[in-house]
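User: Hi! I have a protein structure encoded as tokens and I'd like to know what sequence might fold into it. I'm fairly new to this, so please keep things simple.
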């Protein structure tokens, strides 16, 4: 799970175009759920999408990481942010649309947990509400035995991440080490990401089991695909 502080997470992903993604999400919501007002961002991280979406919607968020939630609250002070598990949450608000982006659904790890997450989402959607889930990779796409390097820099902070891809059953393992350089010196962090690899067919079955309609867009926001689910009227 995530061991890197929020500030460095944002540097590591500073080349990700959250503003453009928010624009695509807004277009999708506008087409399928015009008049939507209340959104929930599951596994919202540091609220980088919320920063842009909050110009148009009331957007709340949920994540396991308290440090990331603190950053999300700064970015979207009107939002309600909850330290909770997407696989089992109960909020006292219903939403027009729920988002789960940047492959966060993979952290559910198992298909049973994906189904539990989808049921929780269904129970927090108004009739006709929209569920946008950007998946992690499929079993065919994950290539074990690879080394990945990411280098990023912003505001004088340099982040270098090196990760290794491994496989355990239907779960991708991605142990990563970070070096973070600032004016104070160089620090080291470690994370291991364990994420479930699900086929498109398995995801369709999970939506059906949660009594949600679903369409799959293979391109999605960044080429990883997008499940566009809906709560039946
Ligand atoms: C790849 S990050 C994505 C964050 C954000 N959506 C973004 O686009 O930058 C994955 C996030 O999922 C959160 N997460 C992982 N497992 C979770 C769970 N079971 N419930 C809620 N959040 C979870 C992590 O804390 C992390 O913030």
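Assistant: Happy to help. Inverse folding works backwards from shape to sequence: for each of the 233 positions I chose a residue that suits the local structure. Here it is:
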């Amino acid at each position: 799970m995530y061991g890197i502080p929020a500030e460095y997470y944002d540097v590591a992903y500073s080349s990700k175009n959250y503003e453009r993604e928010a624009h695509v999400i807004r277009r999708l919501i506008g087409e399928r759920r015009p008049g939507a007002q209340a959104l929930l961002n599951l596994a919202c991280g540091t609220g980088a999408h919320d920063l842009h979406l909050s110009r148009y919607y009331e957007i709340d968020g949920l994540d396991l990481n308290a440090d990331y939630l603190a950053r999300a609250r700064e970015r979207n002070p009107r939002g309600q942010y909850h330290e909770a598990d997407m696989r089992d949450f109960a909020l006292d608000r219903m939403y027009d649309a729920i988002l789960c982006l940047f492959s966060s659904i993979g952290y559910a790890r198992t298909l049973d947990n994906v189904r539990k997450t989808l049921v929780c989402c269904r129970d927090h959607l108004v009739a006709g509400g929209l569920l946008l889930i950007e998946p992690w990779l499929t079993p065919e796409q994950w290539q074990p035995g690879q080394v990945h390097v990411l280098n990023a820099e912003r505001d004088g902070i340099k982040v270098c991440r090196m990760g290794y891809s491994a496989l355990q059953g239907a779960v991708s393992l991605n142990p990563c080490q970070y070096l973070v350089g600032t004016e104070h010196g160089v620090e080291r962090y470690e994370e291991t990401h364990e994420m479930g690899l699900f086929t498109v067919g398995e995801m369709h079955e999970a939506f059906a089991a949660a009594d949600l309609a679903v369409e799959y867009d293979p391109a999605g926001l960044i080429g990883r695909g997008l499940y566009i689910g809906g709560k039946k009227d």
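A useful reference point when you look it over: The CA atoms of residues 103 and 135 lie 5 Å apart. Feel free to ask if any position seems puzzling.
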